[in-house]
Amino acid sequence: MLEQAALAVLIGWLAWALGGMALSPVPATALGAAIGLGAVTVFAGTLPIAALIALLAPFGVMLPALALRQVGAHLGLPVAPFSTLELAAFLVAYLVFLAAAMGAVPVDLYRFGYAPLPVALMTLAVCAYGFATGNLFLPLVAVAGQLAWALGWGSSNWFDHVLHVLLIPIVLTILAQRLI
């Protein structure tokens, strides 16, 4: 059910982004919400929805949160953007993390996402960073991810709740846009 809700948000975000090319933010948001909820509800149990979930799951907290954050920003909510340095540092760290998870780096960082103490320390570190920079988005994602992890919703690894491989093309796109 959580995967379907996350998929509804992402489909709604895509519809919002496409609708936003012709509509103002409020109608585009309504259209996105209707299409996201409608697609997951009407097509529940069908091959296209199952394929999207199989391809993209676990969605975790981050992807839906980023989508909702972008919609909120376009609706006028105050959203602090990530700096270019933050995005570049994240990209390098995440690529090293993925390399380690695939065995290319001799340290298995992914295993820390299964243990309570490392998860608590990582969540506290993200919260401290967020409070130091005045950006509450990352602490909210870290805590929501820890809550989902602790309650056993979805993956048994905290990293699956707060990271997603689609963050790589997202961050690369943002960084490329900033260069232009």
UniProtKB/TrEMBL annotation:
Keywords noted in UniProt: Membrane, Transmembrane, Transmembrane helix
The superkingdom of the source organism is Bacteria
Query: Membrane among the record's keywords?
Result: yes
Q: Which residues cross the membrane?
A: 42-66, 87-107, 113-131, 161-179
Name assigned to this protein: Uncharacterized protein
Name its species. Roseovarius spongiae
